[in-house]
Each structure stands twice: as structure tokens, then as C-alpha cells.
Amino acid sequence: MAFGDAWKQLSWFYYQYLLVTALYMLEPWERTIFNSLLISVAAMAVYTGYVFMPQHIMAILHYFEVVQ
Question: Any transmembrane segments, and where?
Fold first, then answer.
């Protein structure tokens, strides 16, 4: 029963995503390309944040003399 409820909720979120982004008007292959690009950009942003944020945080801490 819990799996069915989770699936229904996930389907509802996907439907809302399609409506908000107006992807329901696209053909399936266009939707696939758009979703692939969106996931790629999001993955690159997460990776960039993971790699470069510690350097920026340390620079800020050094600037405010929190860390020597």
C-alpha cells in the first residue's frame, strides 16, 4: 500500500513539473532532450559547488581573520 501511495505522489509531482514548465506540449523526444540538458546543468552546478565552495569559504574566513 505504501508503494502505491508513493508512486501516486511521485506521478503527481511529475505531472506538476510538466505543467509548470509547459513540457506537456513537447513531443517525447523533445522532452527527453530538455530533461537531459536540465539534469546536466544541475549536475555541473552541484559539482562546481562541491569543488570550489570550500576554497571560497576558506578565503572568506581568512579575510575576516576567523582562521589564520
Answer: 10-26, 32-54
- d(Cα 36, Cα 30) in Å, to the nearest integer? 10
Break the chain into its structural domains and give their ranges: 2-63
Contact between residue 57 and residue 50 where contact means Cβ atoms under 8 Å apart: no
| Cα dihedral 33, 38, 44, 50 sign | negative
Question: What are the pLDDT digits (tens) for 10-67?
Answer: 999 999 999 999 999 999 999 999 999 999 999 999 999 999 999 999 999 999 989 8
Looking up cell 562546481 gives 48
Task: Please name which of 24, 6, 4 lies closest in space to residue 15, comparing C-alpha atoms.
Answer: 24
